[in-house]
User: Fold this.
Amino acid sequence: MSDVRTRTINVQALARVEGEGALYVKLKGRAVQEVRFQIFEPPRFFEALLQGRRYSDAPDITARICGICPIAYMMGASQAMEDALGLQVGGALRQLRRLIYCGEWIESHALHVGLLHAPDFLGYDDAIRMASDHRELVEDALGLKKLGNQILECIGGRAVHPVNLRVGGFYRAPLRSEIRALSPRLEWGVEAAQRLLQRCAQLEFPDYEHDYTCVSLGGRDEYPIGAGRVVSNRGLDIPLSEFLNVFSEEHVAHSNALHGRLAGSDAYLVGPIPRYNNNQHLLPPGVRKAAADAGLGTECRNPFRSILVRSLEILYACAEALRLAESYQEPEAAFLEPEINPGVGHGCTEAPRGICYHRYELDENGRILNATIVPPTSQNQRQIEQDLRGVVERHVDLDDQALQWLCEQSIRNYDPCISCATHFLKLTVDRQ
Amino acid sequence: MRCDRTQQLVVGVGNEQRRDDAAGLEVLRLLAERLPAWVRAVAHDGDGAALMELWQPYRRVLIVDAMQAGYSTGTVLCLQGLEVEVPRGVYSSHAFGLDAAVALARVLGRLPSQLTIYAIQGENFGLGEGLSAPVAAAVHEVAERILGDLGRQGDISS
Assistant:
């Protein structure tokens, strides 16, 4: 009788993701017995913190949920409050919001692609060790991150926790000259993004595919960033007001984050791959050609190729930001002032990591009665665990060290922002 | 050799809402009225890529930050740029922080001519405001040491 070996891979601290996380995989022979993606930080209480605050406080408070994607939270909160108060923000203000959001996509994706994920594919522990041999890649990633931050500073006042965004628009609308001054750097950004995409197209991708339930915003005539209905590749097409009827969060024992669940589906995916799969027909012709040249078809099913999709989105965001900057006209007013009424509002935008949903209920004085925030990484939790099971099952013959590396790389496919998913930034690592 | 006074930068790194992680910012506050006019002082969130951009024009840079390195609370370490250990794989919750920035800048040739890091061992990095007592004492010590450093630099001559 053969002796079935039990292997346990236990990564207590997950390197190179925002915040902290851990991974536990148990194998018995060739069978995967258990997979757990664990969040160690205590849960956040921002939703409770918002209760009793004025509607106008929500963007600044929620911005502190994440230092890498504050715009996503500020936009989602603003959109939800505007929905609750019956305020329509369009025209030049809408374009300015789209421009600053491009800045966030650029800086978040560039950090991830160049400094957090590329080392996996090139066989390095981290970007520091990679930089000596791949200097251009690292310099381009740093330059693109700087460019994204410059956009945030120009429009938002500063890159971390921007101060110029508010419900109804902005406290101050930038001058046309200030926005136009971004153009030379954006032109460089388009070139750098093309280099980065071409470099990523040369990477070797582990063999793994899955038919994901892809959830994203659905664009009408532009690649969705700040607005849209919620759609999927399974036929879902709902207004934001239906979000909580279709999606739910459940608390799982081994994680402090809430796991997203879609009615009628075990797990679903949000982020660049669903955005691309559901909306790639809305990309400009030049970006679609770049996608094809990089080996991206009309649908991406390999999560390891997410680095390609992120690189493509950096290119799109630079090109779109350049278009918006060159066509920017100062708005008549920096913001629209709402009338205060009780009500419920919904907001949902495409954070770099995927859709981020907000719901608020306001009283007659505009104070928040209750708040619900559903970050993208918590929505991906269940899918991450399933991906890990699939990856391990396919690569069970690898030795422990190689398998551990592949599992870590798999989690980083999602660019998980664990500080968002748990609503907390505390770094606590339990090392055995 | 006289140090170029116009190229000196003091950076306080931290987060106001994470208790001892505010140590660097508190040092900056203590220095606010006492720094020579020719020294630039900047409060910073610690994003590594942004730090590398910030310090680029400066020859002499002093940075203050809280650390979690297993020392007793309030311990102050003073490191010169080349002494900072290259971190292996594990990053802070800021994802690409000060230590990684120093290490990467070293590889890319982007370190300032003189980089001094004051690291204060923290105890409580939870949500909220207020420093632990030993950290509160340490920030005063570090502020005095920085003033001493800058004073000595201003008088150096050969």
